[in-house]
Amino acid sequence: MPMSRTSAPADSTPVEPAPADAPLTHGLKQRHLSMIALGGVIGAGLFVGSGTAIAAAGPSIVLAYALSGALVMLVMRMLGEMSAANPASGSFSVHAERAIGPWAGFTAGWSFWFLLCVAVGLEGIGAAKIMTGWFPGTPEWAWVALFMVVFCATNLAAVKNFGEFEFWFAALKVGAIVIFLGIGALAIAGLLPGTDAPGTANLTGHGGFMPSGSEGLIVGLLASVFAYGGLETVTIAAAESEQPVQGVAKAVRTAMWRIGVFYIGSMAVVVTLLPWTDKAVAQKGPYVATLEHLDIPYAGQIMNIVVLVALLSAMNANIYGASRMANSLVARGQGPKALGRISGGVPRIAVLMSSVIGFVCVLLSYWRPNDVFLWLLNMIGAIILVVWIFIAVSQLVLRRRLERETPEKLVVRMWAYPYLTYAALAGMAAVFVLMAREEGTRDQLYATGALTLALAVAGYVLQVTRKESPKV
């Protein structure tokens, strides 16, 4: 029988306190949340990594991003429903614990924390490569260390500092995409000086809309699914906003369709203006290749600056997200107490630990690039899908509970519940099957599966131990 928040059984694990009682401060404003929602998912994966997806899928990359975008919108709608009803800095980890059990919250939370820490290191490496291109002869690790110190310090200060940094970072990224879409639309219409309207020549020529058949579409689909990762951070940040319920509801609603326009629109502009066989798309990135094709001056350097900002923004957001997730897990008795210490409204030990783990990953990329570092990359390969499954299952359970006990909290509602939730779960299962079929993603699937299983077992053991010994 489902338990209520007020009459939980004696063996249940206490969940994170409501934001009003939490020691974290409420320093984020609505404008911060809106930009965090937009900026969190707009990273180097879109600006650079999407070029590889285009090279594999051709013009059908637009369809791949549309399909994966639809899945992400469903996931975010589910997460928005739960987070608006019960804002918590642990976000989906708290929801999974309430809906499924402590082991589920433990698994979802620590796997996401691990993903963010490794991602911090990867983004640092990417940003350092750009800096060494501008300053030849300087060591990459020194740039990474500098970035780590800056953003660790930003996150150690009041949360409003993180919000301000992320607001302006995200504003620059969003502005760059809007300008790109505007220039692209003019070029497609033949209104840009010195250009002719391309028509559908690049969409239907060079092998057609799906030049590599279904296999190319699958590769593009897998790449696009993981490019959308990062939206979840806004529901973590909402717990520290001035109005958590209204803030997360508005941020989720506005971010979903805007991101769809940015991603799908960008891919449509690129494959309409350039033949997908153009090697510059994969080598330089689709944005740089398109702007250079249109003879936009200094396109390469402009986009390098935008990509650098995107990487630094992601570092900043991921250190924040990792520290808050760790703090939430500790608050629920699922991690070392030291990580949960709050000072000045900030979980500073968790911030430091998350930053250190990220820098260790960077060092491993130099010391053990072909075994340990590769193993880490494989383990985080499909974690976001695992998190999405926990979100969907939690929403199925909690929606029924909310409708029965506190229907007034349903300020955001999942569309066509429960049918679209089941459709989203089917979509996630399909992505897992596709990953198992593709040689390039099979190792990631297995490594992520092993990590998830290990965390689930550890979480279940902790759950049983606490049930038998409540004082632990």
UniProtKB/TrEMBL annotation:
<feature type="compositionally biased region" description="Polar residues">
    <location>
        <begin position="1"/>
        <end position="10"/>
    </location>
</feature>
<dbReference type="GO" id="GO:0006865">
    <property type="term" value="P:amino acid transport"/>
</dbReference>
<feature type="transmembrane region" description="Helical">
    <location>
        <begin position="141"/>
        <end position="159"/>
    </location>
</feature>
<feature type="transmembrane region" description="Helical">
    <location>
        <begin position="100"/>
        <end position="121"/>
    </location>
</feature>
<feature type="transmembrane region" description="Helical">
    <location>
        <begin position="33"/>
        <end position="56"/>
    </location>
</feature>
<feature type="transmembrane region" description="Helical">
    <location>
        <begin position="410"/>
        <end position="433"/>
    </location>
</feature>
<feature type="transmembrane region" description="Helical">
    <location>
        <begin position="62"/>
        <end position="79"/>
    </location>
</feature>
<feature type="transmembrane region" description="Helical">
    <location>
        <begin position="445"/>
        <end position="462"/>
    </location>
</feature>
<feature type="transmembrane region" description="Helical">
    <location>
        <begin position="349"/>
        <end position="367"/>
    </location>
</feature>
<feature type="transmembrane region" description="Helical">
    <location>
        <begin position="259"/>
        <end position="276"/>
    </location>
</feature>
<keyword id="KW-0813">Transport</keyword>
<dbReference type="Pfam" id="PF00324">
    <property type="entry name" value="AA_permease"/>
</dbReference>
<keyword id="KW-0029">Amino-acid transport</keyword>
<comment type="similarity">
    <text>Belongs to the amino acid-polyamine-organocation (APC) superfamily. Amino acid transporter (AAT) (TC 2.A.3.1) family.</text>
</comment>
<protein>
    <submittedName>
        <fullName>Amino acid transporter</fullName>
    </submittedName>
</protein>
<dbReference type="InterPro" id="IPR004840">
    <property type="entry name" value="Amino_acid_permease_CS"/>
</dbReference>
<feature type="transmembrane region" description="Helical">
    <location>
        <begin position="217"/>
        <end position="239"/>
    </location>
</feature>
<keyword id="KW-1133">Transmembrane helix</keyword>
<feature type="region of interest" description="Disordered">
    <location>
        <begin position="1"/>
        <end position="23"/>
    </location>
</feature>
<feature type="transmembrane region" description="Helical">
    <location>
        <begin position="373"/>
        <end position="398"/>
    </location>
</feature>
<keyword id="KW-0472">Membrane</keyword>
<dbReference type="InterPro" id="IPR004841">
    <property type="entry name" value="AA-permease/SLC12A_dom"/>
</dbReference>
<dbReference type="GO" id="GO:0016020">
    <property type="term" value="C:membrane"/>
</dbReference>
<dbReference type="GO" id="GO:0055085">
    <property type="term" value="P:transmembrane transport"/>
</dbReference>
<feature type="transmembrane region" description="Helical">
    <location>
        <begin position="296"/>
        <end position="315"/>
    </location>
</feature>
<feature type="transmembrane region" description="Helical">
    <location>
        <begin position="171"/>
        <end position="192"/>
    </location>
</feature>
<keyword id="KW-0812">Transmembrane</keyword>
<feature type="domain" description="Amino acid permease/ SLC12A">
    <location>
        <begin position="32"/>
        <end position="442"/>
    </location>
</feature>
